[in-house]
Write the structure tokens for this entry.
Amino acid sequence: MNHSLIRPGRLEDLPELQRLHAECLRSYYYDDLGDSEEPELIRGMNAVFVDRDTDRLKGFVAFDRVRRSQALPDSAPSKVPLRAAAISSPGPAGRSHFRALFEHTHRQLPLQSQGYLFYALTRQGWLRASLKESGFDQCDAVRFYERRSSEVEPVSQPAALRPAQPSDLPQLAKLDAAAFEPLWHMGVSELLQLQRDCRIEIAEAAETMVGYSALRLIADGSRPGTGSAQLVRLAVHPGAQTRGVGRQLLAASLCRATDLGFGRVFLNTQESNMPSQNLYESLQFRRRGRAVPVFVKRVEQGQAKKPAQ
């Protein structure tokens, strides 16, 4: 007899969900969503694993179906990041539970010709094993850099720089789609959110957008020079690369951080992106910490089916 049940989460599951995350060693929250509340996760695309005998949660996963960007090519899949997970059972049983939860979750998605790209960033061993059990493959890793020097050497100025306006976002999304693979792409809705807490600077050459940067200032309320700045985005159109546009945007961001009294600038980039790493290291950025592996699984049309009634 099956004493377990998999179903979508409900708001009344919140106390059990909080208990599971508090007590479970195999618990995960995506770093960028650390301030998310559990009700947000329950209202999203999720599944819970319930013990019928005790009515206690034994597992939970939550994915976030990102709104599809109109700037993506028709063949590009829609990305679906893992937001949170928790599994109480260790070893093979836990991996099996995660796989069942994942399969239940992706069946909630409607069929679409482009398919879906599920992905997760994690160093946690139990989650990496569970993702592999569910058919995910490691495609890359995210590497972190930090710079503490306040000196910025002069660089060439191949483009004119200006702050972004809301009306620029559709064109920026097209530039972003040309510069990044679908997994890393930001559409208009994501760029709008980015603009709310970052300064987005656009590079133009011959009245054409050729690149942009996004700098976030993180003040901690202490004395000047002790806060941090994060270069959240640096993108150059493929047709304008190798001209020094990226170096110009990066140097301008560093100068702005220094002028405002922020002594530390940090960023991240893909481990496979050697041109970006070479650029950062040439401007005194140094690697910090361990890279975070990136796991992906593409679900094609016909694989994501509606749950049985």
In short: Residues 303-309 have pLDDT under 50 and may be disordered. The radius of gyration is 22 Å. The longest strand covers residues 286-299.
